[in-house]
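User: what does the whole thing look like in 3D?
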Amino acid sequence: EDKVVQSPLSLVVHEGDTVTLNCSYEVTNFRSLLWYKQEKKAPTFLFMLTSSGIEKKSGRLSSILDKKELFSILNITATQTGDSAVYLCAGGKAGGGADGLTFGKGTHLIIQP
Amino acid sequence: GAVVSQHPSWVICKSGTSVKIECRSLDFQATTMFWYRQFPKQSLMLMATSNEGSKATYEQGVEKDKFLINHASLTLSTLTVTSAHPEDSSFYICSARDAGGGLAGLDSYVLNNEQFFGPGTRLTVL
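Assistant: Here's the predicted 3D structure for the full assembly of 239 residues, as structure tokens:
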């Protein structure tokens, strides 16, 4: 059975801090690792990672994948209160994209002013 | 970016009634749409994969007779919760994958593997 595990489950930091969110996965026919940010409604896409060791960046957010260790991290630097959300990690399969994603339970990040 | 809409946003119904939720891709065609369910403080759980023009594929533990899926066109999938009960109360989210891409090789895969999520439908069954 496919499994995605995120840690920590919950994290409270102060504005300006840097945080690292962890995601480990066991997904058969693995092809991609995706990160989403979920606030009040549906998740919004952040990153898709398919290759090991290549960092993807978007502003203060960055992510990297380690396919040998089956692990990914999401870094957020200089955090702001608007970064407060649940961050979801999901594993995607190979095979033409016909399979749904396997999600982790998410990390609930709270940024205090 | 690609936009996916869901209707309704929120529905309250009595136990025993059926509720239909629509998922539309507004500016792209989606041969495959996915239905997820999210209970409070839980993650998204894939319920089924909806394929245009063919039967849906259900995940283990999801009753196909209770959650009817129809993917009648390349831009519309519907999920009908039949004989809804309070335990079916949840947040239902659909996602759609762009059938096109226009690029070959890895780029095409990257485009084709990204799922665009709808805003979700909150179902409350009394």
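In plain terms: Chain A touches chain B through 25 residues (CB under 8 Å). The first strand of chain A starts at residue 3 and ends at 7.
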